[in-house]
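Encode chain A's predicted structure.
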Amino acid sequence: MTRLDHHSQHSSSSSHLMIIPQHKIQSMVLSWLEEDIPSFDWGAQAVGDRITSATLYIKSKGLLAGKPFFDAIFQQLDCTVHWYDGEEESAIDDGQWFDPQSQVDGRNMLAIARIQGPACQILRGERTALNVLARCSGIATRAFQLTTLAQQHNWQGCISGTRKTTPGFRLVEKYAMLVGGVDTHRMDLSSMVMLKDNHIWSCGSIAQAIQQVQRVAGFSLKVEVECQSFSDACQAAEKGADIVMLDNMNPIQAKQVANALRQLYPSVLIECSGGIREDNVADYFSSDIDILSLSLSQHSQFHLKSHFHKKQRRMNKLTISSVDFTGKRVVCRVDFNVPLDKQTGAITNGQRVDATLPTIKYILEKGAKSIVLLSHLGRPDGKVDKKYSLKPVAEYLQHKLGKPVTFLEDCVGPQVEQACKDPSPGSIFLCENLRFHIEEEGKGVDEKGNKVKATPEQIQSFRASLTKLGDIYVNDAFGTAHRAHSSMVGIQLDIRAAGFLMQKELEYFHKALENPKRPYLAILGGAKVSDKIQLIQNLLHKVDEMIIGGGMCYTFLKVLHSMNIGDSIYDEPGSHLVDSIMKEAKDRNVKIHFPVDFVVADRFAPDAHTEIRTREQGIPEHMQGLDCGPQSRTQFSQVVQSCKTIVWNGPLGVFEMDIFAQGTREVMEAVAHATSSLGATSIIGGGDTATAAAKFGWEEKMSHVSTGGGASLELLEGKVLPGVEFLSRVESN
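Encoded structure for chain A:
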């Protein structure tokens, strides 16, 4: 037998018992026995009342908890309990760990207590006492294992038992949680205000629910609000919730939402609950998450749902085609982050402006009183830098629309608010660069180059000023949808709709991720496996085939085939992920294709000496693979031609240099042909892949070329985009 004293983390049972007065324990014991023996126990009576003893054995390793209840049950039945360690009587207490290794009747068991008293009374208390002890010890053991796991991961947050406790056993289960080292969340309904979906729906909104409960509960009780999305969480925090509970979010979503929320509301406690289990709780560990609550007992799950509103239908985001703009002032977040000529300041590529024109024109055609356009440009790091001014964009936009565009020298403040307060019908405003203000991103760099952060008060004031510029909020900036910046998630207007560009992006990615035509192929490039692991893992659940090229293929090939990769990119951390990726692919019947030959070079330069090397030959020392070879291009193109949905993220080689561009060029040509001639749906992720499509002239042949590199990557990784979550939801069948 081995035993680990756990008093270093858990105090003696008397301190845990302080939550339950002695008279309450006695009352509970009487009710348990009354329930178990409402009239008469014929079996116990048959053995008589002779004085005898019984031994309590522990049969599985774990934490002991529930002694006070066990003792009280037998005390009520005129029996005594003596606790001991093996054969020696000792001060066994709740919070001790036991690992039984002694053989008793062929099983590992350890004797820990002896009960003495009338035989009939021991039998009458046996079932109730064992059930309470088993349940209490089970909860404490699970709690202890979770706290140990948190310590191993150096997570400083709080593990809490859920609010789902057994009627009549609540205090027992709360006691067990304390013994195991986790928080009880709340002892009962009077300990804290918890606003769940039923409360919110019956009150009408999160804001109204918080306002009403604060009026009733006063200042002495904390208020926690159950939130289903980032926008719900922001509203709860904004209206004064002390704790925001992110409900039923997967680890990736929870971490992303918590991180965004932490930047905006650093003093709010963030809890995650729902869907958290022992096997995935570590995935939720994050410095941005304060509390993780999960079930500590095994029981069936039930949920009481009110019928104030029917919320069973799938929720979608509001789009501008469903909004009445008549006479309204519209604040529209766009992505005018266009390249400018360094000498003249003129726009060298206006594609991003052109992409938003349908949204701008539609809003004006539908009778909007004004439209105020907000955008960032470059990285001015929270300070005014005229080389990043949006003034040239205003001139370009005016030319494209054929209508006057008023350029405002700032994006917030009294002068901007006054200009937008009561404009002439049909007015078009373009505000100065949002990122001239540190409050947009929440951080920046001062004049001395030091990193600085905006205070919550500064951010709140900045957002309040932006909110005054319109009556309706429209977001058409998909390229920044993965950023929880003020203009993306902080303009608190009741109507928040997606523009046509945002809508198109979301529809294509939804089609690719949720309802693709098959066979479904993913083409993935990039340098490091570790950088793309979330993308690979998420797509393995979706696709039928996968092509892995670019720099990261060399890590796979070295691990899987012991290939000599010369000076090619080798991702040491990523190498440890290769076997698990391949196993999951095999389990899910996903075929992964790697290059079989390579364009290798002696240096990274347009005039480098190049060779074609096969996988069997390997890559010589002092040379590196910079593109896939001719055999690989042919094989990849054949795979492409057989598929009906193709998603591409990351080039297959260093396409910026012509001598290493052929792999990306030829496979992209095959994708274009599959799209235009074979009926495939092709989606090109933003960033380098979109740049390659533009360079080779294949943009028009693709079904969709995304305008957002980071945003499209995070969508494909299965993450929540804060800018999308912030949009209003509508019901649909």
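The longest strand covers residues 110-118.
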